[in-house]
């Protein structure tokens, strides 16, 4: 039974990492939009925003609340595979470093 549980470990790690990546981007994306606008503000000209709150106000007034979701789809599509691979790799490396038995996870040809 233990080896059967371990054989399902990699798909679970991949799924968990991917879903965590999606969740983290959905939660943090609006702040990332504001951060990016403030970073690009004033490049080659006078600053457009006087503060974070001013950036939020102007963005919503000019583009509506959907401004905070523009580009989220491509970010989420990228987040799943990147975070899935990262989470699974880090977990397996840590297991290896602790000396845990990874032999049930090795595919033999």
Report on the structure:
The structure is a single chain. This protein has 109 residues and is mainly α. The relative contact order is 0.18. Helix 2 packs across helix 4 (72-97). The protein is built from 4 helices and no strands. Keywords: Membrane, Mitochondrion, Repeat, Transmembrane, Transmembrane helix, Transport. One of its GO terms (biological process) is mitochondrial L-ornithine transmembrane transport.
Question: What is the strand and helix layout of this fold?
Answer:
Layout (H helix, E strand, L loop, with lengths): L1 H6 L1 H32 L11 H12 L8 H26 L12
Helix pairs in contact: 2-4
- Average of pLDDT: 90
The oligomeric state of the chains shown is: single chain
Radius of gyration equals 21 Å
Helix content: 55-70%
CA-CA gap between termini: 23 Å
Biggest pleated-sheet summary: none
Q: Stretches where pLDDT falls below 50 for ≥5 residues?
A: none
- Number of beta strands: 0
Tally of DSSP helical segments: 4
- What is the element string, with H for helices and E for strands? HHHH
Percent strand equals under 5%
Q: Give the overall form.
A: elongated
> Structural class of the secondary elements?
mainly alpha
Can you give keywords for this protein?
mainly alpha; 70% helix; MCP_dom_sf; 109 residues; transmembrane helix; repeat; membrane; single chain
